[in-house]
Amino acid sequence: MPNILHRLLRSGVVHVLFAFLAMGSWAVFANRAHAMPLPLYAGLVQGTISACLTLFLKSVIDWLSKRFVGSARFWAPPLIACLGSASILVAIHTATGTPEILKTIAFPLLVSTIYAAIYNYSISARRGFDT
Question: Which spans are transmembrane here (predicted)?
């Protein structure tokens, strides 16, 4: 049984589905005061964006971490990833008419930025500060 759990936790499909369900549900909750189907649309949009960002965030951090040296390698990649994610989230939610954009994106952006910072730190710390 632990072997199955370990495989599930390492599965990209599981991570993408979890991102879709968790952040999509959050968006429905954040927009619950508005008439249906606006909360559902916000949930579908946020779930889809979160699933896509989950797919690409690791690759972006890998790529960015190789382009900075010294201490900048620890803070620049997560900051750039956060700003890029925020731009994408605001643009898409604005275009699709999400009523509560800031409430909708706050939690997913926080989670993705924390993930980016931890992942970036873990790969940058292995390389050292100066290389």
Answer: 40-61, 73-95, 101-121
Contact 57, 81 (CB under 8 A): yes
Which of 94, 97, 96 lies closest to 86, judged by CA? 94
How far apart CA 96 and CA 108 sit, in angstroms, is 17
Whether 53 contacts 88, CB under 8 Å: yes
- 114: its two tokens: 């924390």
pLDDT tens digits, one per residue of 66-82: 999 888 989 999 999 99
Q: Which tokens hold the place of 42?
A: 């916000």
Q: Rounded CA gap, 26 and 107, in Å?
A: 8
Burial readout 17-29 (b: 16 or more C-beta within 10 A, e: otherwise): eebbeebbebbbe
pLDDT digits (tens, 9 = 90+) for 4-43: 766 766 677 888 898 899 999 999 999 999 999 999 999 9
Domain ranges for the chain, please list them. 1-97
